[in-house]
Amino acid sequence: MLTFEFPINALILLAVVAVSMLIGFSLRRSQIAKVHKKLVKAETEMINSHAEILEIQKEYISMELKLRGIKDPVVMMANPNGNNNEKLPNGTLRKKLLTKDFTPTRNEGYRLIYDNLLNKEANANTAS
Question: Which domain holds residue 107?
Answer without folding.
Answer: 93-128
